[in-house]
């Protein structure tokens, strides 16, 4: 029992920064107990060691299941645990598992032991915050630890115009065809792209008709284009391009009453305001040019 306490003390001192309040409290106790232990003789036994096959850098997609491997040889009666370092840079760690027991209150985390020696940490439904530094530790004397870094790939969704510029609003005249372009990067392999209007998933077989989607896969992700023919004013509203339940982006479509079925689109970029693009300005500009060019009498 006392030996176990000693090992735990050494173990956690290795994890604590030297300035931590518990450091100065635990250190004298461990030194005193270590002196007592040295008065007895014991037969040295081979120390456990980590397999060189253990991957120390793991990369997974958001929402997937991550397995962090920890193969330990000659474990004998020692115990394996998993901890995660705080992402705040304060040197703190959080105990996740100890042996076959899970100490984290996060039900997505569990220990998954695989014979003969792999103490895998399983993380289901990986979130962005799960990324960071983990450590697999063995309660040997001295304690041993192996670091594992988990990287989470987070998909990104952008709604853009034909030139690839991001947009938040798009304007159309009644009767024109709505065309919305959604660009997804870091696309997970098992998630589908969905389009919603007013938070309702679009039904391409609806009686309204004229709704279609064309999705093109690319090396870096995908491009999904939504088409809505013969737009009406009730087609106005927010349109959302979503990647399952992982992430989404929304654009606001305005269908204006008008006779010309040409599409108008606004983005966050400046609008080109040359005089010839506005009939009134062009007329004033032409009149001014004519006056300036009249010969003096």
Automatic annotation (TrEMBL):
One of its GO terms (cellular component) is neuron projection membrane. Pfam families: Ig_3 (PF13927), V-set (PF07686). Residues 48-151, 155-241 form the Ig-like domain. It comes from the Eukaryota. Keywords: Signal. GO terms for biological process: synapse organization. CDD domains: Ig. InterPro entries: Ig-like_dom, Ig-like_dom_sf, Ig-like_fold, Ig_sub, Ig_sub2, Ig_V-set, Zig-8. Residues 1-21 form the signal peptide. This is Limbic system-associated membrane protein. It comes from Folsomia candida (Springtail).
């Amino acid at each position: 029992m006392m030996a176990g306490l000693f090992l735990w003390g050494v173990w956690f001192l290795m994890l604590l920064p030297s300035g931590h309040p518990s450091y100065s409290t635990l250190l004298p106790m461990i030194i005193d107990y270590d002196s007592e232990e040295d008065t007895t003789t014991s037969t040295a036994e081979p120390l456990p060691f980590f397999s060189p096959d253990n991957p120390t850098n793991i990369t997974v997609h958001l929402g997937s299941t991550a397995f962090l491997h920890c193969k330990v040889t000659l474990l004998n009666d020692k115990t394996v645990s998993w901890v995660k370092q705080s992402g705040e840079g304060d040197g703190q760690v959080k105990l996740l598992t100890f042996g076959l027991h899970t100490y984290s209150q996060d039900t997505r985390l569990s220990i998954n032991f695989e014979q003969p020696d792999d103490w895998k940490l399983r993380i289901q439904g990986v979130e962005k915050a799960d990324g960071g530094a983990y450590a697999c530790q063995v309660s040997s004397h001295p304690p041993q630890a192996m670091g594992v870094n988990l990287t989470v790939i987070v998909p990104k969704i952008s709604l853009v115009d034909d030139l690839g510029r991001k947009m938040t609003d798009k304007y159309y005249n009644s009767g024109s065809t709505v065309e919305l372009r959604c660009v997804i990067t870091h696309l997970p392999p098992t998630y589908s792209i969905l389009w919603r209007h007013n938070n309702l998933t679009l039904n391409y077989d609806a009686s309204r008709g004229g709704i279609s989607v064309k999705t093109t896969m690319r090396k870096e992700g995908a491009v999904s284009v939504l088409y809505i023919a013969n737009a009406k004013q009730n087609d106005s509203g927010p349109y959302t391009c979503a990647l399952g339940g992982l992430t989404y982006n929304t654009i606001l479509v305005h269908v204006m009453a008008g006779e010309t079925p040409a599409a108008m689109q606004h983005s966050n970029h400046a609008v080109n305001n040359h005089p010839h693009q506005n009939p009134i300005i062009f007329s004033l500009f032409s009149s001014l040019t004519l006056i300036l060019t009249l010969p003096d009498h």
